[in-house]
Design brief:
By secondary structure, the chain is mainly alpha-helical. It is 60% helix and 9% strand.
């Protein structure tokens, strides 16, 4: 079951809130996998991409398990916590680049309009889903 978003307005900022997760392990695998595949396709397949996906997924799940459902807060936690981690040494990106991409994927998965997103991002999400389905067959 896909999480859905609820938009709420506090002052002039719109917040995207994720619904509570029913299956944390499935969500952890999705976050780690979609980021690894995106990194491999965006640059070149590297071993560090699996480490990046796993590290981001660990923080994401910890935040969600702790009751955090605001996408912005979760992304800020991920970007900040991983900013100086060694996993970035061999990659072509950084913690906030990956955290922001995760926010984009989460919003696309919830059918939320995402500013400045093109068809490539949507097709990346579809390709990941197709890859997982093929592996399960």
């Amino acid at each position: 079951m896909r999480p859905k978003a609820a938009a709420s307005e506090e002052s002039s900022v719109s917040h995207l809130t994720l619904q509570a997760l029913e299956d944390m392990e499935s969500e952890r695998r999705w976050v780690a996998g979609v980021l690894r595949v995106w990194l491999d396709e965006e640059w070149t397949p590297l071993d560090c991409h699996r480490l990046v996906g796993d590290a981001v997924a660990e923080i994401y799940i910890r935040e969600r398990a702790g009751g955090e459902n605001d996408i912005g807060s979760i992304i800020l936690s991920i970007g900040t916590e991983l900013i100086g981690d060694d996993i970035w040494r061999e990659s072509f990106t950084d913690s906030f680049g990956v955290a922001n991409k995760l926010a984009e994927f989460l919003m696309l998965r919830m059918d939320t309009e995402v500013c400045c997103t093109d068809e490539d991002a949507k097709s990346e999400l579809r390709r990941y889903t197709e890859l997982v389905e093929a592996e399960q067959s």
